[in-house]
Amino acid sequence: MKNQEDQQQKTMLSKRLNILFFLVFLIFSVVVLRLADIQIAQGHDYAKQASKQNFKETPITAIRGDIYDKNGKVIVNNRASFTAVFHELDNMTSNDYLNLVTHLEKVLAGTNKVSLLKKMDVGYELKDGKMERTMRLSPKLTEKDLKYDLSQKEIAYLEEHLSDLPGVAVITKPIRVYDPKEVAVQAIGYVRPYHVAENLGSDFYLQQKDHYLSNQMVGLDGVERSYEEQLRGENGYQKYEVTSDQTIIKMLEEKAPTKGDDLYLTIDEDVQLGIRDFIKDFMPDLRRTVDKASQAKGAYVVAMEVKTGKIVAMVSYPEYDPNVWSMGLDGDTYDQIKYSVTNGTIKEAPYDVRPKTGKAAEAENYKHPQSIVPAGSVVKPITVLMGMAEKVISPNDSWIDPGAYHYGRGTDTINNDQHHNYGVLTPQKALQKSSNTYMARVGELMSSKYGKEAVSVMQNYYHAFGLGVQTGIDLPGENEGKEDYLVMNKEYGPLAAMVQSSFGQQVRLTTMQLAQYAATLANKGVRMQPQIVDKIKDSKGNVVQSFTPKVLNTIKLPDLYWNIVHNGMYLVTQPGGTAINAFAGFPYKIAAKTGTSEQDIYTPTTVVDKKTGKSSEKWSRYARITNGVLISFAPLENPKLAVAVVVPEGGYGGRSAANIARAVYDIYDQKVGLVTPVKSGK
Questions:
Q1: Alpha carbons within 13 A on the beta-carbon side of 315
Q2: Per-residue model confidence as pLDDT tens digits over 194-209
Q3: How many CB atoms within 10 Å of residue 51?
Q4: Angstrom distances, CA of residue 209 to CA of 131, 181, 189, 194, 214
Q5: How high is the pLDDT of residue 682?
Q6: Distance CA 330, CA 337 (A)
Q7: Dihedrals φ, ψ of 196, to 5°?
């Protein structure tokens, strides 16, 4: 009996042990499977998380390359600045922001609560002492610059009281510095934080996102933008081992940033500033002494080397101080500079309506032309060349000016300026006197010969000279101009289009296009690509890229035709010519063509329908204004420099644009020399 009980106990114990072993096995299996899941399935994520917890990488912003003029004078560089910055913390309230700026205005000299709050960009602004909601201009987590160039006293205070200043830190930042003399500021452009370029939707910057930090300065216009990849350099970093609370244990790795390459421009600073300063003094005199120029405020100049296409000077006046972009730009400052930011030599720059602001400024702007205006008589050399090349006039053409040229059914009339009758006209004299009737005759002859194809033939000539197409200048946003003759051809037919185009009223051009056109005339048909960067060097001074002159196309015509046009343009600067006063006494022969283009200005008015109460915008003619234009090159025998000038609302080109062009040649001859000295043999 006892043995039987022992046997039963052993059996029970065995069953219990088996159950226990099975439970242990199950538990062990679950643990093993869980470990396997952690190590295999989720191992990458945990490793990544562990890496984040144990390592910290701090980026080091690369220094942008410097920009120099052709002679090595610094135009743009960088300097280090102790800067107070703000990183917005989670859960900060409007009271937190107000308390912070109230504290900071007592510490940071020259600041106040209103300006500091704008720089913090936290979605609030201070109006009449009250916090009001406003729109953010940049991402919440972006670092905001509060004040540059902190004094030692300010640095010491901030460092000692950081616990009382949530989100505030002191760092050293590279600041982009532009020459205070304001050298070709629109051509050079400006920089803004990367997040601004990203918000603008720039395809280039969106694709290049990995190269930038959110607050890193990048080029948004001018050579700062077109040579961004060369200027930006390569960011570095420092990698640290840290504890879970981000306390640094040691630095594990460091990659030093690579400074960006330096640009050497073709622009001559002395020539550039000399021209700008002349314009600054000349424009008030022009407004005061010339009736038709009483509203002229802007002037646009391009001086280009004839043989190379190198841009010696590019003036878009008025100018401004581009350092405002680097030092932090607020709305009030932008309202003051927005009329002078655009490069009016290649784009449509607005009229400078200052001191008006707001709606008054907007209304005033409609009353004036922008920087791209009808070319006027400066296209007449093309009309003459085209007429000879297409055999509708001969090089020996002689025509008696009727005083008024009637075309079509005889009801449409073209007159010369002030209804002059110039008597017997040759191609050369027609250019000298700037005869509209002679050019209208050529236009009608072209229309008779080619019919519906006449406008296409003329367009081919325009494009060959760079008119109506991009010049190829290495700057962003170049405008192609406006070919209004295409609209006229569609609406009124080829005869009207050809006649009206023949003397320059149906094409609007940039100053850069006009300079390239003048250089092409000087080169007897060889069109050069304009060039603003001469070479690029690395931080060690090694040339990493150089630029050679580039021919875009060649217009092949007999030398006789070119010589006729050159001689006619030379006569423009001689007695009886339209630019005699401006170029009197100049020691070298200059070929020029003035232009005085008429332009109708239309302004909008709001009209309310009496029945429906709905409002609509109606445009009506406000005024007819005249613009001063000029193209030129010198010396006549061996051209070295081509100059184009546009003065919107400048009145007669011979009194506005021509006087500025004369100053350009005087300054260039003094600083560089129009004639290269011949080296004597030993």
A1: 30
A2: 888 888 888 899 998 8
A3: 9
A4: 35, 34, 21, 9, 9
A5: 40
A6: 11
A7: -70, -45
